[in-house]
Amino acid sequence: MLSQAKGVLFDLDGTLLDTAKDLGACLNYLMDKYGFEHVSYEQYRLVASDGVYPLLDLGFAEQLVHFDREQLRQEFLDYYLENIAVHSKPFDGIVELIDAIERQNVPWGVVTNKPAFLTDPLMLQYPEFKQSIINVSGDTLPQRKPDPAPMLLASEALGVASKDIWYFGDAERDIQAGRRADMTTVIAKWGYIKNEQELASWQANYCVAHPLHILAVEDQAKDRPNL
User: Fold this and answer.
1) Burial letters 46-83, b for 16+ CB under 10 A, else e
2) What DSSP designation does 131 have?
3) What is the number of alpha carbons within 13 Å of residue 186 lying toward its C-beta?
4) Cα atoms in the Cβ-side hemisphere of radius 13 Å centred on 64
5) How far is CA 7 from the centre of its chain?
6) CA triplet 151, 157, 163: central angle to 5 degrees?
7) Distance (Å, rounded) from C-alpha 201 to C-alpha 155?
8) pLDDT tens per residue, range 194-211
9) pLDDT higher than 80, residue 137
């Protein structure tokens, strides 16, 4: 049961929280405003954690050149901030996993590329996450994932050497950042994975289909099982 972990870190969107429907609602708000057809859940879910610009690219497609991208981004963010946790919720099994981590007195936190003005109010919506030691956002430092600097900052805040920390994420940049910081990396396969065929190339220690599956792992960190 995470027997090797002395600290745990999570990505936010697509790992701790299923935020896709709220992000998609922001995109479709703009679709309505400017007379475009809605983007389906199946389409926007795959780019939900990539940031605003990829979502705008998805919705406006070739028509985006006729708009002010910065204005659209600001309209998106304004709407999102006002509706940040309407549909978002922890993925199934996440609350139980965090409870297990806390019962073992293992410190944990979040490292995300989401900007702090969104990360902080979003995290406050979920009392289950109140024990997070640190929430490192995409603008906390000049560097962001896949750079290891945010990971090392979080490691320092937890008071745990990076080699003793497990990092969960659903994007290649997460695994790259974790590996560069010498952490044990876990692919959150329940998240916004675009192409499962590429996961092996990320070279994570684990690829886990459900948050609670990691609790069955003992001393196999180098075996990289697909659980």
Assistant:
1) bbbbbbbeebbebbbeeeeeeeeeeebbebbeebbeee
2) T
3) 27
4) 18
5) 17
6) 50
7) 25
8) 999 999 999 999 999 999
9) yes
Query: Whats the size of the chain, residue-wise?
Result: 227
Which position has the higher pLDDT, 84 or 221? 84
CA 6, CA 163: separation in Å to the nearest integer? Answer: 9
Which pair of tokens denotes residue 197? Answer: 């065929």
Task: DSSP for 147-202, please give it.
Answer: SSHHHHHHHHHHTS-GGGEEEEESSHHHHHHHHHTT-EEEEETTS--S-GGGGGGG
Q: Which residues contact 96 (CB under 8 A, 6 or more apart)?
A: 211, 212
pLDDT of residue 223: 46
Q: Which helix (H) or strand (E) holds 206?
A: strand 206-208
Among left, alpha and beta (phi > 0; psi -120 to 50; other), residue 182 is left
Helices within the chain (DSSP H only): 20-33, 41-44, 52-60, 69-82, 94-103, 116-124, 149-158, 172-180
Inter-axis angle of helices 69-82 and 20-33, to 10 degrees? 130
- Per-residue pLDDT, averaged over 100-128, amounts to 97
**Helix or strand run (H / E) with residue 9:** strand 7-10
* CA-to-CA dists, residue 15 to 90, 162, 208, angstroms: 8, 20, 11
Per-residue pLDDT of 165-178, as tens digits, reads 999 999 999 999 99
The residues that are catalytic are 11, 13
